[in-house]
Design a protein that fits this description.
With 149 residues, this protein is of the alpha+beta class. 29% of the residues lie in helices and 23% in strands. The chain has four helices and five strands; from the N terminus they run H-E-E-H-E-H-E-E-H. Strand 3, helix 3 and strand 4 form a beta-alpha-beta unit. The structure holds tetrahydrodeoxyuridine.
């Protein structure tokens, strides 16, 4: 793993500590790297009406969009794991984005004109799996189909 990847995964790990996940007790953190080196993070935000839960990647990319930076996304990292008693994610299983998040990442991918690297890490350990968004969501429908991007 390169240092930049390590830093992005570590940012996702720190973000996971802010997960609001009392129902699943599964904490997820996402870290989005922008082209100028800025890192924007998010954590899963569950809701007592369970189906309204927002995933970590969605929270992070929603923040990026609200900052007007959707075209500047360069990469995203995600980690997650079952919470320990202090709320920290645990375990060495790699987490990859759910289907809805893949579609949301695609919005940033097409708006930024980049087949975005998606780094899937674990709460603990050095393992990382590197994908590009098109590997996770081939032939995606996106802004391009509507004449944007
Ligand atoms: N979760 C994410 O935050 N990102 C994903 O890509 C997969 C799932 C969250 C949603 C829910 O709060 C918890 O993980 C268990 O599904």
């Amino acid at each position: 793993m390169t240092m930049d990847e390590t830093a992005l995964i570590d940012a996702a790990r720190r973000a996971a500590r802010h997960a609001h996940a009392p129902y699943s007790r599964f904490a997820v953190g996402a870290a989005v790297l922008l082209t100028d080196g800025t890192v924007v993070t998010g954590a899963n935000f569950e809701n007592a009406s369970y189906g309204l839960t927002l995933c970590a990647e969605t929270v992070a990319l929603g923040t990026v969009s609200a900052q007007g930076r959707l075209r500047d996304v360069a990469a995203i990292a995600v980690i997650g794991g079952a919470m320990d008693q202090d709320g920290a994610p645990t375990g060495s299983s790699l987490v990859s984005p759910c289907g809805r998040c893949r579609q949301i990442i695609n919005e940033a991918a097409q708006m930024s004109g980049t087949d975005l690297p998606v780094l899937c890490g674990a709460a603990e350990g050095d393992a990382v799996r590197r994908y590009t968004l098109s590997e996770l969501l081939p032939d995606a429908f996106g802004p391009r189909d509507l004449g944007f991007a």
